[in-house]
Amino acid sequence: MRNWRAALDRRTARLPWRRATGPSWLQIAAVVVVVALVLAVTVVGLAIEESSSFVAFLATVFVAVTVIQLSGIGRWVAETFKNHSRIAAVAGVAAAFAFPFTQGGSGYWVRVFASVGVFAVAALGLNVVVGLAGLLDLGYVAFFGVGAYTGALLGGAALSPVRLQLPFLAVVLIGAAVAAGVGVIIGAPTLRLRGDYLAIVTLGFGEIFRITVNNWTGLTRGPNGVAGIPDLAAGPFDFGERHELFGVSLAGFTNYYFLEIVLVLVAILVFTRMDESRVGRAWVAIREDETAAEAMGINTTRLKLLAFAIGAAMAGVAGTVNAHVTSQVSPDSYTFIESILLVAAVVLGGMGTVPGALLGSTLLFVIPEKLRAFQQSRLLLFGIALILIMRFRPQGLIPSRRRTRELRQDDPAEGDAMGSPPSAPVTPTASSG
Amino acid sequence: MTVTGRPAVARVLQATGVVKRFGGLTAVGGVDFHVGEKEIVGLIGPNGAGKTTFFNCLTGLEVPDEGAITYRDKALPGRPHAVTKAGLARTFQNIRLFPDMTALENVLVGRHCRTRSGVFEAVTRLGRFRREERESLERAEELLQFVGLPKSGDWLARNLPYGDQRRLEVARALATDPGLLLLDEPTAGMNPHETAGVMALVRRVREQGLPVVVIEHDMRFIFGLCDRVVVLVQGKVLTEGAPADVQANPAVVEAYLGKPA
After folding, report:
1. ipTM of this predicted structure
2. Quick one: which of A372, A383, A267, A356 has its CA closest to A315?
3. A295–B92 CB contact, under 8 Å
């Protein structure tokens, strides 16, 4: 398959978009057009009511993307996005903010995407643990749950046994701190384990969390959950009400949607800055070879705990916000399946990357919404999708920077162009031994 | 070495009576070993003599059952990362780079224990973070240059040619600012002119004032490079001394080739 790719690459090398990068105004225009196109396709796709038409729509998009990839335009677009990453980021955020205005006052999809935002923040947190540090955590949803329960109990829920309503910002910080604390408590004994063993033990802890919440009726009201969590309010601004912006009346959920965009942006900033730092490099080193990392002076125990705590804190933030979005929390929202879906989102999108986590969470939320007809076989379809991804695109839909580099250098054409790095000087007499 | 303000120590590393058993097998059976300032010490012996296990004991990957190891008159800490921070850096017999990281990133990982900025600094990009990143980057590029890989920084470690991977491992070890470098078979699988390159590299490391311990099977390499050679056979020191003396010792020949009939 690789050879076939390389041959195609050579054939398309002379096409105009492969040779010329074009003037920068063209590139910037291309970035804006592509982002607008993605927004338009999303809006059109979401407007399709019938499941069968939606499947046809997905197939069309898939074919279109494949054709774009094979023609080499895909690479050009990727390069252009890389060269103008700031503009691309601004355009992407603008498109995200513009989305509710395309919905004609309906809050349905805005609500779904608010959930996607919550899920994406958690997925980015899990990406620190799984994608960077390489620790497979199958009980990750427990941290999300810790955040959600903190948000419910301290956020003034009507049925909360704790008679307390703290300001939202304080609740978010406490939620993050409590989740990080639980992460450290769970991580300290379990992080001695590696690979599959760690996965099994974290799975166990995830279940312990759910069962504890189910039975600790004094604090969590057990299986009934904590209901009546009030909408957020920033001064006189109530997040639950309709507001008018630029002459368009926006559903109440739009406020949460905007809040989620901001949270996702913060999470992206935190993730990328950690990734490109001393700590991020140490995590990746641990993922690559733990023994060698330890021998190079990295305190692996401490850094793995740190990864666990940071990932947990990000899930905690997502959880506290989600408590207000859904207005109630109950133990059955934090099952093993939710953990699996989070891992699936990260793996599907591409481990260790920001766009991967975002795309993965979007797909895992939006597609089931649209394909209600397949509700029963949802998990089966996810399983098949994951197996196909593992077989044909193990690096995920959007591979990481490092992975891309690896694949590029396997490409014989480019390898020749770069030439092999110089080795020791060749002396003619020495070669006869 | 009084220039550095440290009191002059004749012995950089001193190991006394190191024993390591795996169940009934005594891999290292009471080895005394020392390294002096600016010395290149060769550690040789037939396969299974316990050379790598002894290395692992020195670097904290294995905990010796008996014996004491001191580095510059201080007992070595028990965990590998702490040993590295104390000043012992090593390479591995079977290359253990971080394959999906670039060559430059591999070397930057070596800077980890000499820098301090944490998550908070990384997210806020405060002054210390920028300064440390810049310094680490400069040092890493300097080291890539030093080992002879000036243009390979952007290559993924896994895509480097074999000999360059060995050199990169040395650069990564040097990035930890060690006071003693331990090389485990640095020329394994190399052709003669690559071996000559590594020999020159080890000499240049010593010229920087760094003592080196090297495990090797390539006798030309050992006898051409080392100031002193220690022969390990079945977990015990058979003999040690200047390369010429060791080479002439009939017991060494016998350990490798067996008793003449």
Report:
1. 0.90
2. A267
3. yes
